[in-house]
Each structure stands twice: as C-alpha cells, then as structure tokens.
Amino acid sequence: YAASVKDGSQYFVLLIITDGVISDMAQTKESIVSASCLPMSIIIVGVGPAEFDAMVELDGDEVRISSRGRYAERDIVQFVPFRDYIDRSGNHILSMARLAKDVLAEIPDQFLSYMRTRGIKPSPAPPPYTPPGQPVQTQI
C-alpha cells in the first residue's frame, strides 16, 4: 500500500510482534532497505526470553541497515523488547505507558524525515469539526 502513495497524503506504520526468530535475515534486510524510501515506519516488539540481537541490527540506530551494498535511505525501524517493560512492582499502568512512549518514540522523526526529503509541505488545516445537528458558526 505504501508504494502507491507518494504525495504525502498518507503515512503507514507496520507493527510486528515477534519472538525474535528471523528465518531469513538477508531477505528481511532487503525488504527494509527497499521500504526505506516509502511513507512508512516499522515497529517491532520482541516478546519472550529470546536474544534480540538481530532485531537490534534491524533497528539501525547504531549502524544504518544495508543489503547487497545498498544502504537504507532512512531509519524506519523501531525495536522494543517487551520484557524491558514488565514492572515487577505491580505498577502496570506506568510500565505500559513507558512501553507506548518508547514504541512510538521514533515515528515523528521518521515521518518528518520522509516528508522533508521529498519536499512535501503540510496541507492547510481542515475546518473544525461540527457535530451533526449543531449550528455551524461562522466568523464575519
């Protein structure tokens, strides 16, 4: 879907929940490199006790991900290990809030990076929402 939208009218977020096992790392890296020019971000949440070294590599925060000598145009992957957010003290609301914050942390910069590199400017704001049955107020 993301490949069909180039005008900045839509931006996509793919959420992947995984146990950390990647059956084809080369193909996964190739897909991410190809998707890095599209209006999309990828969030990966790792669950379970597995080692997530491969997921950290896909995240690309330390080293830009590459495949067959081609580097990703931009960082589009955010990896978060779920186990880091399990609160043993019982404060699940706070731990889930931290998880949500970190899962979404890179989306604004990834979105802006896509728009800026393509010279896409924000559209004017739509008019305020008026609930059905309410009189429309106009300013003179």
UniProtKB/TrEMBL annotation:
Annotated Copine C-terminal domain residues: 4-122
Region (Disordered): 121-140
Pfam families to which the protein is assigned, alphabetical: Copine
Cited InterPro entries: Copine, Copine_C, vWFA_dom_sf
Compositionally biased tracts (Pro residues): 123-134
Superkingdom of origin: Eukaryota
Protein name as catalogued: Copine-8
